[in-house]
Amino acid sequence: MMAVAQAKLEKEGDDCSLLPLVHDIIKCMDKDSQDVHQELAKLKTRIQEAREQISNMPGIESSPLEQQQQLATLREQVHTKNQLLQKYKSLCMFDVPKAS
């Protein structure tokens, strides 16, 4: 589920930088162009998209303490699984066919 959410976020836009839009606004202001309102609308839209992306991030509803607890639990599970894997490897119960 987390991977799906991450893939969706990556598809929505890898560029989170607002600087190019701000630069375009400043250029329009320097030229006394009428495009300033259009550029400001683009900036507003991009900020709203960033807010939506942030609110859709996995785990955003969890407190930092809950996230730390979940991280500790996951690390413990990985450690346990690695120990079991090493144990099973050391049992030598697997018949590995030799390459001819």
What general form does the structure show?
elongated
Oligomer: single chain
Total helical segments: 4
Q: Give the number of domains.
A: 2
Number of strand segments: 0
What is the helix fraction of residues, given as a range?
Answer: over 70%
Helix-strand topology string: HHHH
Estimated share of beta-strand residues:
under 5%
Distance between the termini: 43 Å
Low-confidence stretches: 1-5
What is the averaged pLDDT score?
81
Major sheet = none
Secondary-structure class: mainly alpha
Radius of gyration: 25 Å
How would you describe the overall organization of this protein?
With 100 residues, this protein is mainly alpha-helical. It has two domains: 16-57; 61-91. The chain is 70% helix and 0% strand. It is built from four helices and no strands. It has helices at residues 2-12, 19-30, 36-55, 64-90. The radius of gyration is 25 Å and the shape is elongated. 0% of the residues are buried. The model is unreliable at 1-5 (pLDDT under 50). Keywords: Activator, Coiled coil, Nucleus, Transcription, Transcription regulation. Belongs to the Mediator complex subunit 9 family.
